[in-house]
Amino acid sequence: xxxxxxxxxxxxxxxxxxxxxxxxxxxxxxxxxxxxxxxxxxxxxxxxxxxxxxxxxxxxxxxxxxxxxxxxxxxxxxxxxxxxxxxxxxxxxxxxxxxxxxxxxxxxxxxxxxx
Amino acid sequence: xxxxxxxxxxxxxxxxxxxxxxxxxxxxxxxxxxxxxxxxxxxxxxxxxxxxxxxxxxxxxxxxxxxxxxxxxxxxxxxxxxxxxxxxxxxxxxxxxxxxxxxxxxxxxxxxxxxxxxxxxxxxxxxxxxxxxxxxxxxxxxxxxxxxxxxxxxxxxxxxxxxxxxxxxxxxxxxxxxxxxxxxxxxxxxxxxxxxxxxxxxxxxxxxxxxxxxxxxxxxxxxxxxxxxxxxxxxxxxxxxxxxxxxxxxxxxxxxxxxxxxxxxxxxxxxxxxxxxxxxxxxxxxxxxxxxxxxxxxxxxxxxxxxxxxxxxxxxxxxxxxxxxxxxxxxxxxxxxxxxxxxxxxxxxxxxxxxxxxxxxxxxxxxxxxxxxxxxxxxxxxxxxxxxxxxxxxxxxxxxxxxxxxxxxxxxxxxxxxxxxxxxxxxxxxxxxxxxxxxxxxxxxxxxxxxxxxxxxxxxxxxxxxx
Lengths: 115, 467
Known about the structure:
heterodimer; A: 115 residues; alpha+beta; 5 strands; globular; B: 467 residues; alpha/beta; 5-stranded parallel β-sheet; 13% strand; ATP binding (chain B); cytoplasm (chain B); zinc (chain B)
């Protein structure tokens, strides 16, 4: 089931972040392949991006915080919630500084308050 | 003559005496009725003020088996008792526990119903709202007959109908920093079933200073979240969200909508967590968050951070006392109101750029050439709209501003006069934003309708649907 989502998302954003990747790749270590991760959006983050999830290529040694910066360039309105979210990496709490690995799943969880 | 006068006079007097006696009787009746009402109110108040000592009053003189349960309890809760992991001990723990449910709405409905049916010894319900017809699609505890009545009365009546053997306490008031310590102190466990951000911070902080476990659920749109806070060394709400999101980021069901069953699902899971904490069985969601995605039928459970040592409320060096709790301004901190009714009224543009809905009706009657742009989202426009209005959602106004010009020209051409531009939205905030934008982008004479469609329905057309 998870695979399907990832494939679908990959189609959704073909090469969306290739420019970003190449830019950083030139400055960084060209030999290392970029890291491909899956980002899950919940609640307000989903409303802002209009997507439940997205596949994202990030430069090697990127942190969760770096990933958020990349997302902010693509979805500037995420700015309004970026100080009030919980990051979960592979379904576990993660600080901004955690380094992302190939195949990681990063969830962006803003609080909801309705009832 | 004299005699006759006296005779007539005494008849009048007798009549007057009879009348006064009747009046007296009626007054005395009214006095005793009022006295009885006062006594009843005092009893309710006293009950609300008492610590919720549940177990003894449940037993209430009934014969108790050696295991601590009455024959009635054994029969009623037999399916619980048959669970090897729950059993007699679990049931007695429920009977001995007291739970405060804050909010008798979409989340609170299933929470309260399940807690009442499962035999929690004492349930307190806090809410100051009244039941409205547009609550009933999700707030399943309330029947139509209670529309217009207090939610706590309705909820308590439903619980009594299910289980007359438990104690129910009605707190027909809003939970606020000023009264929360007093109310929360009477209960063992707190369930947050509220619908707004300031209440969530306030309830979490209150549970920290009173050292109570908090079962916190939330639902909006097609998503839900559920966590147990401040339980067995776990984090509190502030550990996770030290900074409140800006107002716009945390919306309400009355703005964003909610699929009725979504808070129902989360509320049921809240009841389950409350029962686990009360009975002491299993592993709770402390330190974990359950995220429910109704659209894709996915439930994820995310491991949360531990308690934050730097937390403002529960951190190692936190200086957060009961006193500082009571004086903390939660609405200011979150920049949003606790009550749905106290909506902030935007005042962005000058009065000269605004007209009332009645004034707009007058200009329709005068057949003044104009266009009315409705800046609500397209799915709102489909619900209801003023005839002849044109839908250009606020978010699309910048891109579609040329449309405004072409519509104006069309009307001007047909009427032979220049056409004026009016803007409307649901309540009169977005229409101001639109007029502000339009006036800076080539339409200096644009005006909005004060109070939006709500005022149109209230002041001009009572048959216009409100939502």
